[in-house]
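Lecture notes, part 5. Sequence design as translation. It can be helpful to think of inverse folding as translation between two languages: the language of shapes and the language of residues. The source text, in structure tokens, appears below.
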């Protein structure tokens, strides 16, 4: 087992489910950051993410707990808890137990996905989850794309990889030719690692026998180590979201979602075509996963001269999300 010498408890936003997996009134079990967690959706549609164990006698709310209005009710003795984890009713007493609180987490729903904020010191979110459609300030919105979930997504569970690997992919110009089998070397036009939300843009120029010289590129927005969204231009219009969420100290879940642009003259077959195009994008991402899932973190890495600056900036940026030593 290759335990990366990097903390598996970084600070940031992490995808824990797709929205469609947690309907109104549903209680969804999950394990992240070494904790048993639940996500549940109240009658008014709001999502809550909290620790799974009832603060009364420790029943797991994901096994038989149910939602009533804006509360989750424990299956053991009927205590009721709100989305902030506060006890609001002990059914056989006149007052709730104000002293007990189930740990709850800031949560955001965006781009068909549910995100939880994780910070081992309990700090409030200090950056936002980027929006894969509006985050590029080009006037596009979700309506311009086919939905991603479920057909144009993948979820690979408990892989031995660290979130930082995926982020390093963004500055790794040399892997395209070998991992993605494309005869190109991207040219970086932006590597901005000044803030918790970082930006990487690159252009790709190549000769296509049919179409001649093609200019295209990718823009990426990375928010912490858990979220990367991309926009492609000059080729198939697509947006992607890659999300890596630590499960425990050895493994992570990887989710990847692809949205294909709707053509201006929509024909009945185009949704099936979009799914096909998305599969091609997913296949490229799977090729990366195949490397990451077996990679050993190299520190210090044996970089070439051309690689040095990008990796140095990225690793310096990544370090801010790790808990500082006690
Ligand atoms: S353990 Fe939850 S109400 Fe008793
Ligand atoms: Fe890649």
């Amino acid at each position: 087992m290759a335990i990366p010498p990097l903390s598996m408890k970084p600070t940031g936003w992490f995808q824990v489910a797709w929205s469609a997996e947690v309907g109104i009134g549903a209680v969804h079990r999950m394990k992240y950051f070494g904790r048993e967690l639940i996500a549940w959706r109240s009658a008014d549609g709001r999502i809550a993410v909290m620790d799974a164990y009832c603060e009364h006698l420790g029943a797991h709310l994901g096994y038989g707990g149910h939602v009533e209005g804006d509360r989750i009710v424990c299956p053991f003795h009927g205590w009721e808890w709100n989305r902030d984890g506060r006890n609001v009713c002990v059914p056989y007493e006149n007052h709730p137990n104000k002293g007990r609180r189930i740990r709850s987490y800031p949560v955001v729903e965006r781009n068909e996905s549910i995100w939880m904020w994780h910070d081992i010191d309990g700090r409030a979110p200090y950056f936002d989850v980027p929006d894969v459609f509006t985050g590029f300030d080009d006037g596009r919105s979700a309506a311009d794309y086919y939905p991603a979930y479920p057909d144009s997504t993948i979820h690979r569970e408990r892989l031995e990889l660290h979130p930082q690997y995926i982020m390093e992919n963004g500055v790794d110009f040399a892997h395209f030719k070998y991992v993605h089998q494309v005869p190109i070397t991207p040219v970086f036009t932006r590597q901005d690692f000044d803030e918790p939300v970082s930006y990487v843009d690159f252009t790709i120029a190549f000769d296509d026998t049919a179409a001649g010289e093609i200019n295209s590129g990718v823009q990426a927005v990375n928010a912490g180590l858990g979220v990367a969204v991309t926009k492609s231009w000059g080729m198939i219009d697509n947006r992607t979201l890659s999300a890596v969420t630590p499960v425990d100290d050895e493994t992570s879940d990887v989710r990847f979602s692809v949205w294909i642009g709707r053509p201006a003259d929509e024909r009945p077959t185009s949704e099936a075509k979009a799914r096909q195009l998305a599969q091609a994008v997913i296949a490229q991402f799977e090729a990366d996963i195949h490397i990451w899932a077996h990679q050993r973190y190299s520190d210090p890495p044996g970089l070439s001269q051309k690689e040095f600056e990008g990796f140095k900036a990225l690793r310096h940026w990544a370090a801010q999300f790790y808990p500082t030593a006690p």
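The translated text above is only one of many valid answers, since several sequences can fold into similar shapes. The longest helix spans residues 270-292.
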